[in-house]
C-alpha cells in the first residue's frame, strides 16, 4: 500500500488541523455562539483542509478514519469544556 505526499505537505496538513482545532477551542472558551460566525468558520476550515489535502493521496478508508478521529477529538474537547 502506497501513500503519497511529501513530508512538507503532511506538516502543512497537521499545522492547519492544529490551528483550526485551536480556533474552535478559543471560540468555545470565549463563548462565541453566533451561528453565522460558526458557519463561516466551519466552511473556511473545510475549504482549507480540502485544498491542503489535495496534495496528499490516501485511500478512502484512511480519510474516513481521519474524519472519525477528528470527530472523536472534537467530542472530547467539547465534553471537557461543557
Give a structural overview.
The chain has 82 residues and is mainly alpha-helical. It is built from 3 helices and no strands. 0% of the residues are buried.
Q: Using DSSP, what is the number of strands?
A: 0
Question: Given the helix and strand composition, which structural class is it?
Answer: mainly alpha
Q: What's the story with the biggest beta sheet?
A: none
One letter per element, helices H and strands E, the order comes to HHH
Task: Spell out the key features of this protein.
82 residues, mainly alpha
Concise summary:
By secondary structure, the protein is mainly alpha-helical. It contains three helices and no strands. It is globular and about 40 Å long.
Amino acid at each position: 500500500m502506497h501513500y503519497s505526499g511529501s513530508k512538507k505537505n503532511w506538516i502543512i496538513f497537521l499545522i492547519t488541523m492544529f490551528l483550526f482545532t485551536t480556533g474552535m477551542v478559543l471560540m468555545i472558551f470565549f463563548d462565541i455562539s453566533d451561528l453565522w460566525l460558526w458557519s463561516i468558520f466551519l466552511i473556511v476550515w473545510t475549504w482549507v483542509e480540502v485544498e491542503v489535502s489535495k496534495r496528499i493521496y490516501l485511500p478512502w478508508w484512511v480519510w474516513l478514519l481521519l474524519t472519525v478521529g477528528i470527530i472523536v477529538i472534537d467530542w472530547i474537547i467539547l465534553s471537557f469544556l461543557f
